[in-house]
Recover the amino acids of this structure.
């Protein structure tokens, strides 16, 4: 037959008994469920307990991830904070040289322009290092030797100082923020041998 210029094709239908058999097979494959109200309550409680366990595991995983992110951010900040420590350690000998040079300039030529320039460069270098977080390690003759911030390059017998006290500072030490970049080189007193 034609309706609106198209030919209607008869649709093939599956025989009803075959479709019924497939439906019965699908129902047979369904898992057996609880049949009594008590079994339903028990199954519901089990599913609630399982859901609570899953929720607890999810919360823990979420907290672990948040802690991981915080730890990672802190490590990143530490890395950035001390990233220039190698460069600073290389610049410190230049600062030492400036200090030695300025100490040897005679007072009578301090007013000369080029000498003032040397002092200015020295102060600028110190200011830049301070801006980057570099501080001089406090070391004083007569104080106790501290291996965390001092490096003993010599031990010398002394009547004036007790064993373990600093008797001479050979080179200044520096910290970058709270980390030692270069320890203070010191000479330490030891007991006189008998």
């Amino acid at each position: 037959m034609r309706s609106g210029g198209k030919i209607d094709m008869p649709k093939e239908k599956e025989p009803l008994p075959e479709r019924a058999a497939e439906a019965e097979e699908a129902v047979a494959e369904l898992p057996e469920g609880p049949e009594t109200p008590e079994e339903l309550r028990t199954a519901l409680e089990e599913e609630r307990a399982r859901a609570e366990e899953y929720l607890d595991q999810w919360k823990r995983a979420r907290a672990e991830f948040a802690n991981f992110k915080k730890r990672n951010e802190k490590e990143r900040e530490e890395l950035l904070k001390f990233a220039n420590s190698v460069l600073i350690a290389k610049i410190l000998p230049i600062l030492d040289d400036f200090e030695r040079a300025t100490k040897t300039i005679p007072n009578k030529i301090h007013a000369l322009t080029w000498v003032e320039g040397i002092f200015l460069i020295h102060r600028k270098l110190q200011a830049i290092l301070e801006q980057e977080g570099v501080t001089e390690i406090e070391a004083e003759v007569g104080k106790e030797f501290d291996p965390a911030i001092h490096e003993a390059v010599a031990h010398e017998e002394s009547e004036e100082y007790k064993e373990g006290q600093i008797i001479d500072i050979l080179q200044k030490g520096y910290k970058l923020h709270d980390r030692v970049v270069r320890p203070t080189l010191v000479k330490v007193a030891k007991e006189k041998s008998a």
Observations:
- The CA atoms of residues 134 and 176 lie 4 Å apart.
- Residues 37-81 form the longest helix (45 residues).
